[in-house]
Amino acid sequence: MPLQLAPNEANRPRSARRPLPGYSVPCDLWRTHQMIGTWRDARRFPNRGHLVQTGAIRMNIDCSGQGSPTVILESGSGGPSIVWLVVQPEVEKFAWVCSYDRAGYGWSDSGAEPRSSLQIARELKQLLQATGEGPYVLVGHSMGGYDIRVYTGQYPKDVVGIELADASHEDQNLRAPESIGKWQRAHRRRPVGRS
Length: 195
Description:
- This protein is α/β, with parallel strands linked by helices.
- The protein has helices spanning 24-44, 87-91, 117-131, 143-154, 172-175, 178-189, and strands spanning 50-54, 57-64, 70-74, 96-100, 136-142, 159-167.
- It starts with 23 loop residues before the first helix and ends in a 6-residue tail after the last helix.
């Protein structure tokens, strides 16, 4: 809905215009609702790990266990570090293991745009330098597998091994059967759930 102006403000410069009274109330209610939701989430889902300053942002990392090399768990696209909740306790029995939240996920701050695997690799490098971990065995699930391959290409001296857990591949769409391509094209035009 376009901004509605008071009648006497139509000729004023855009920077001097005020919205009609009453429009700030929904915004204030939304801000209050958001603050309450954030407070509740912080109580229901306490932070696992701690925040580390990495350049302009803070990133969450959760490490446990003992030994070397350090195992770094990289979650798939859209997944915070909590997806490793069952795996990390098993790995910590024989290694020092860290899961972390990429920028914009879990408890980490939002990162620079555009988001890319190269940007994710740079941010992970800053995080690991700040925490003093290393050398690394990188474990990547789904899109995280692609991200750790980019990291390994950028910083090969940091990495002593990688584990790809059902990882994505940069050519996966080209190598997929035609039936999958047809399905993807059909669903780009028509969102799922609509006829």
